[in-house]
């Protein structure tokens, strides 16, 4: 029998949403050999790419299709989990909310120093910034509502809010649209 020479790695990361971030960041060091292990495949189906189509992922080949243990009055219930590159992040609804700062401050106060909101804010900001899309929270558009990387396209709706101001977003949308009308009428 021939000897099998296995490659060596500095880091072996088991996949999913968190695993993909870890593997990407560790790979930024040219010297680091990183192995990302992921079940399923790398394909990005329509229902993975279109946020509103996310329910079509449930029960698909991209869903592990787990059931919970029996719940009171309900029996086992479906517990979808992503199976493929990106884990559950590949099949989720893409709603992005940081949560309230008091939650994270509670983590720190209850025995996890270094995990309060101020500690985590740089990491939220980093994870919300993509190469080529400028900087800042979820920077899909620039301050003049121009979509990064797509000439001639502007967005003016609630999706451009860097932070959701409150539960009733209608007034803010109207103000954004008023300002957008001025921006669109001005030279591009
Ligand atoms: C359908 C759906 C919709 C969601 N919508 C949102 C949303 O809109 N907004 C939001 O903030 N959050 C949403 N979430 C939650 C969010 O996606 C998860 O909290 C996040 O992706 C979890 O990341 P993780 O790294 O902890 O786990 P995962 O990304 O689930 O990674 C787990 C890893 O373990 C692997 N694994 C699992 N079982 C096995 C096994 N038996 N053998 C081998 N490997 C296995 C998986 O393949 C995967 O690689 C949604 C989740 C689901 C499932």
Spatial arrangement of strands, main beta sheet:
1-2
Query: What are the segments in which pLDDT stays under 50 over at least 5 consecutive residues?
Result: none
Question: Beta-strand level of the residues, as a percent range?
Answer: 5-15%
Percent helix: 25-40%
Number of discrete helical segments? 5
Structural class: mainly alpha
Query: Looking at the structure, what is the overall shape?
Result: globular
Largest sheet: 2 strands, parallel
Bound small-molecule species: flavin-adenine dinucleotide
Count of extended strands: 4
Characterize this entry briefly.
With 188 residues, the chain is mostly helical.
Could you please describe the fold and organization of this structure?
This protein is mainly alpha-helical and 188 residues long. Among the domains are: 98-127, no CATH class; 130-188, no CATH class. The chain has five helices and four strands, in the order E-H-E-H-E-E-H-H-H. The protein has helices at 16-27, 46-49, 101-109, 117-127, 170-185; strands at residues 11-14, 34-37, 66-67, 78-79. The strands form two sheets. A two-stranded parallel sheet has the order 1-2. A two-stranded antiparallel sheet has the order 3-4. The structure holds flavin-adenine dinucleotide. Residues 15-18, 38-39, 54, 57, 64, 80-83, 87-89, 91-95 line the site of flavin-adenine dinucleotide. Flavin-adenine dinucleotide binds at residues 15-18, 38-39, 54, 57, 64, 80-83, 87-89, 91-95.
């Amino acid at each position: 029998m021939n000897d099998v020479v296995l490659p060596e790695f500095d880091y072996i990361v088991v996949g999913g949403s968190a695993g993909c971030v870890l593997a990407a960041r560790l790979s930024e060091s040219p010297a680091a050999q990183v192995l990302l292990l992921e079940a399923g495949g790398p394909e990005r189906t329509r229902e993975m790419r279109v946020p509103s189509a996310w329910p079509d992922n449930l029960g698909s080949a991209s869903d592990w299709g787990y059931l919970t243990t029996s719940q009171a009055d309900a029996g086992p219930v479906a517990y979808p989990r992503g199976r493929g590159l990106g884990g559950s992040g590949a099949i989720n609804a893409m709603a992005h909310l940081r949560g309230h700062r008091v939650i994270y401050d509670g983590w720190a106060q209850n025995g996890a120093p270094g995990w309060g909101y101020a500690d985590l804010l740089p990491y939220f900001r980093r994870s919300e910034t993509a190469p080529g899309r400028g900087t800042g929270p979820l920077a899909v558009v620039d301050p003049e509502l121009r979509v990064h990387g797509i000439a001639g396209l502007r967005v003016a709706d609630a999706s451009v809010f860097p932070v959701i101001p409150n539960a009733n977003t209608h007034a803010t949308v109207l103000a954004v649209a008023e300002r957008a009308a001025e921006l669109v009428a001005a030279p591009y």
